[in-house]
Structure formats: C-alpha cells, structure tokens
Amino acid sequence: MKLKKGDTVKVLSGNDKGKSGEILEVIPKKNRIVVKDVNIRKRATKPRKAGEEGGIIASEHAINASNVAIVCPKCGKAARIGYKVEGDSKVRVCKSCGAELKK
Q1: Cβ(73)–Cβ(90) below 8 Å
Q2: Among 37, 40, 67, 92, which is 20 to 30 Å from 85 by CA?
Q3: What is this structure's pTM?
Q4: Please, is 62 exposed, middle or buried when counting C-beta atoms within 10 Å of its C-beta (0-12, 13-18, 19+)?
Q5: Across the strands, what pairs with 61?
Q6: Which helix (H) or strand (E) holds 22?
C-alpha cells in the first residue's frame, strides 16, 4: 500500500469530498484507511458501570484508499505516488513535482 500512517491526504470522492486530514490507521488487507475528522459516525452508548455516563460518541470510520490522494508537502497539491530506487532504499516521490515524500 502506498499510503502510510501519518500522511496528509485529501478526499476525492464521497460525502466528505474536499476535506483533508492525517491518516490515523491503515488496513492493507481491506484496502481501507482511517482519516482524522473524515467519515464521522455517531453511536449511542449505554452506561455500563456505576458512575459512568452514557451518550452519543462520534468516531472516525474507515474509507477506501482509492478515494483519497496524498498531499505533496512541496507543491501542496493532491498527487499520485511513484517510487524511485536510490542505492538500497526505495523512496516515494510525488508524480507531479518529483519531490520525495518523507516517512
């Protein structure tokens, strides 16, 4: 999977189209990612222990990795990812400007 935890991505399709955020979790087997403040779902919970409060809890849910594009730190645009081999290491690069993507 080309996306890594901590990358900044922009959502290209869906209800949250246009939003951007940091990747919190990557699920490669299902090709899904969890992005901060994107695809928020609310759930009602009952109090389970004495003194605990019930209520509505909002949390981020996974979206398909094909619905996002990484934001290049150099050019600031949503871009595709390519690879460049330098010696023994393989580095991710921005396809539009050629800048290296750290991480």
Answers
A1: no
A2: 67
A3: 0.84
A4: middle
A5: none
A6: strand 20-27
Question: Residue holding tokens 């750290």?
Answer: 102
User: What is the chain's alpha carbon radius of gyration, rounded to the nearest angstrom?
Assistant: 17
CA–CA dist 26, 46 (Å, integer): 29
Contact present, 57 and 45 (Cβ < 8 Å) = yes
Find all residues with CB under 8 Å of 10, minimum gap 6, and list them. Answer: 18, 19, 20, 68, 69, 70, 71, 78
Structure tokens at 20: 């951007």
Contact by Cβ (8 Å): 19, 37: yes
Calpha distance 67→26 (Å, rounded): 14
Pairing of strands 78-79, 32-35: unpaired
pLDDT digits 0-9 by tens, 68-102: 999 998 988 999 999 999 889 999 999 988 888 87
Confidence of residue 103 (pLDDT cuts 50, 70, 90): low
DSSP code at position 39: S
